[in-house]
Amino acid sequence: MTTPQPLFHLAFPVRDLTEARAFYGELLGCPEGRSSDAWVDFDFYGHQIVAHLAPEECGHRDHSPVDGHDVPVRHFGAILTLAQWHELADRLRAAGVKFVIEPYVRFKGEVGEQATMFFLDPSGNALEFKAFADRSQVFAN
After folding, report:
1. Which of 4, 37, 62, 126 is disulfide-compatible with 72, CB 3.0–4.6 A?
2. Which residue has the higher pLDDT, 75 or 5?
3. InterPro entries this protein is in (predicted)?
4. Which CATH class is domain 63-137?
5. Distance CA 122, CA 19 (A)
6. Of the candidates 52, 107, 101, 113, which has an alpha carbon nearest to the alpha carbon of residue 77?
7. Dist. CA 48–CA 36, nearest whole Å
8. CA-CA distance, 116 to 121, in Å (whole number)?
């Protein structure tokens, strides 16, 4: 019998739960789970993320240089298939989402080549979505 792959759980601050529901639930397509007047669970590609109402904790503050771009240090996201990644990039563009780092291919022609994009949720939390043509490159060094 195989052991199931562990799931991750991430709790993060938001300034408004209605905004979080619109962004994560409607725009990103993450089904909503349990909720209260202080938090909302979302199914984030099979993992549990929880938006907690904490306006004073929102946003990212620091950057780190990666492949010529200033990457927000505190961020989260998902690794998608290339088709899902392109579909999401198109959906975000159509919705007028401003990118912190426009969709592009990072480390082109090198180990770890990946499509990536960074953007902010309405509370200023940074998200990165990436895709690999060769998923064996996810942890390659």
Report:
1. 126
2. 75
3. Glyas_Bleomycin-R_OHBP_Dase, Glyas_Fos-R_dOase_dom, VOC_core
4. alpha beta
5. 7
6. 101
7. 15
8. 16
